[in-house]
Design a protein that fits this description.
The two termini are 26 Å apart. By secondary structure, the protein is mainly alpha-helical. It is elongated, with a radius of gyration of 17 Å. The chain has three helices and no strands. The longest helix is centred in the middle third of the chain and has 35 residues.
């Protein structure tokens, strides 16, 4: 599990789905899309679609990597720590709940 995406200690707050540098990069790109809407709305919508698709792929890849890491441990007969499993489940729950809210 990546340490920069650990769940928060405070109850009621959601764990980060992305590393801080990824969040910043995607946010900057989204701001650029919005800025260009006035001058080129059709292009801005195409860019927004591409950016959302890229973000979804990045999230899917992140979850797949984490799952592979846990499965590798299990395949070797190693037990993943309860904390690693708690972190994984917390992130899955957070992502699931965010999708349902949309």
């Amino acid at each position: 599990m990546s340490s920069d995406m650990n769940p928060p200690d405070a109850p009621g707050t959601l764990p980060a789905l992305l590393a801080p540098q990824d969040t910043e990069r995607f946010q900057m790109r989204w701001n650029e899309v919005q800025t260009h809407f006035v001058d080129a709305p059709q292009e801005a919508v195409r860019n927004a679609d591409g950016l959302v698709a890229e973000l979804m792929k990045h999230l899917a890849d992140t979850f797949a990597t984490e799952r592979e890491n846990l499965e590798t441990q299990w395949t070797r007969g190693e037990d993943a720590s309860t904390e690693d499993l708690r972190v994984a489940l917390t992130r899955y729950r957070s992502f699931f709940e965010r999708l349902l809210e949309a």
